[in-house]
Amino acid sequence: MKVTKLASTCDVKDCPTIYATDRGTLLFQGETPTDHGLQIPPHETLVEIPMELIRKAIRDNLI
C-alpha cells in the first residue's frame, strides 16, 4: 500500500494525521480512546482526531 500524508496538526511523527492510500481510502492517525463504552470488533479500532484536522484538510482541498 502506498501512503501519502495529507494533513497533520504538527510536523513530527506522533501527531494526529490524515493519509491517503493508493487504494482510494484514508488512514487516520490519532489517539486510541478507551473510555467510549462501545463494543468494537477485535479486527477494528477507534481513532480520535481533532475536528480542526478535518477542517484543515477540507479547507486545503485535500479531502
From TrEMBL:
**The protein's name:** Uncharacterized protein
UniProt source species? Streptomyces bluensis
